[in-house]
Specification:
With 288 residues, the protein is an alpha/beta fold. Helices cover 24% and strands 26% of the residues. It has two domains: 126 residues, Elongation Factor Tu (Ef-tu), domain 3, CATH 2.40.30; 147 residues, Rossmann fold (3-Layer(aba) Sandwich), CATH 3.40.50. Strand 8, helix 5 and strand 9 form a beta-alpha-beta unit. It is globular, with a radius of gyration of 20 Å. It starts with a helix and ends with a strand. It binds flavin-adenine dinucleotide and NADP nicotinamide-adenine-dinucleotide phosphate (NAP).
Length: 288
């Protein structure tokens, strides 16, 4: 049973558009197409990727999909060589799992990046590779229901939290959900309006956006890197709760140096990294 019949119709129309597009010589490995694109700014963009046949893989909020491209210069090579030249990377899924016709991805163009420089040039109707299964252990399954969730992301590290919020913000499954998002400039605060709607429609969802390279001394968004925001007590001021390992689980995603700094800070407060054999309350997803 599909919970997104409109999406399916939409998908069928887009598949037709993709089939009649100029990419008739696209590699057979390209089994999906872009059905939506939105530019947040010159580097940050949202794409929705739909399989040319069937529905997207099942996934749990927090998991990632792998997408890829055979570089255009390799399109005339035989299938084996095309397979070898496929540039394939992981992207956290930003859409909710109830949307079965496309996966939404939130991507930053990395200067000189092999895949993102190419992805950034794609438009609706263009084809790409989408792996058959979603993967990853960065999910809320390990967080007990009577806990408070603190979700921390830098840059596109927001993506898995969008899937979580879209799926769970209204369910009251956890005591509270606080999203801390650290970016360079206010213009990098993607999904801000949607997140603010989650906050205003619920009494246990909180949003702490912070910028590090903004000249305007306005507040909010808060100014400073995430570890400094935590040290300044912004979590406590915003939620009225304490950042306590007995009552909170923290999920951290994005820049690996930020993850290390936040982990150290939390360990000083008594938090510990979650491991399969040693359950803890810090969960991390490193993007590089
Ligand atoms: C589990 C997982 C989920 C991911 N989800 C996302 C996502 O939702 N959105 C997203 O944009 N990226 C995400 N990434 C990163 C993504 O897989 C690629 O590494 C990234 O898009 C760069 O690919 P590239 O080929 O353009 O760069 P490459 O030529 O492979 O260069 C890699 C270098 O780019 C830098 N880099 C990589 N990712 C980022 C980033 N997000 N922000 C800043 N610098 C970066 C690092 O310095 C890295 O060493 C995720 C990575 C992992 C492991
Ligand atoms: N977003 C943009 O405006 C922009 C512009 C040009 C190019 N790009 C490209 O996009 C890539 C990703 O940029 P991004 O801004 O999305 O991601 P990013 O470089 O990881 O920065 C995101 C946020 O994380 C902070 N941060 C960085 N290192 C940290 C650490 N050790 N501890 C705590 N916080 C830390 C940054 O603060 P600081 O500001 O203090 O570093 C920033 O607020 C770049 O590598 C570049 O190729 C982005």
């Amino acid at each position: 049973m599909d919970s997104d019949p409109e999406g399916i119709t939409h998908n069928k129309l887009n598949i037709q558009a993709a089939m009649t597009s100029l990419q008739s010589n696209a590699p057979a490995l390209h089994n999906a197409s872009i059905v939506y694109r939105e530019d947040i700014n010159e580097e940050l963009f949202i794409i929705r990727v739909a399989p040319l046949e069937g529905l997207v893989p099942d996934f749990i909020p927090g998991q990632f999909a792998e997408i890829g491209l055979v570089p255009e210069e390799a399109w005339t090579l035989d299938e084996n060589l095309q397979k070898k030249s496929l540039i394939r990377r992981a992207y956290s899924i930003a859409s909710a799992p109830s949307i079965r016709s496309y996966l939404e991805l939130y991507i930053v163009k990395v200067d000189g990046g092999q895949l993102t420089e190419r992805l950034h040039k794609l438009q609706v109707g263009d084809s790409l590779f989408l792996a058959e299964t979603a993967k990853g252990k960065f999910t809320l399954d390990e967080a007990p229901q009577d806990t408070n969730l603190l979700l921390i992301g830098t840059g596109t590290g927001l993506a898995p939290f969008m899937s979580m919020l879209r799926e769970f913000h209204a369910q009251g499954r956890w005591k509270s959900i606080t999203l801390m998002h650290g970016v360079r400039l206010a213009q990098d605060l993607g999904y801000r309006e949607e997140i603010e709607k989650f906050v205003s429609s619920s009494n246990n969802v909180f949003y702490i956006p912070s910028t590090t390279r903004e000249n305007i001394k306005s507040c909010p968004p808060y100014q400073g890197r995430i570890p400094d925001i935590i040290k300044a007590g912004v979590f406590e001021q915003t939620t009225g709760m304490s950042l306590d390992p007995k009552t909170c689980h923290v999920f951290i995603c994005g820049n690996p140096q930020m993850i290390d700094s936040v982990q150290t800070l939390l360990e000083e407060k008594g938090f510990s990294l979650h491991k399969k054999k040693e359950p803890g309350n810090i969960h991390a997803e490193r993007y590089w």
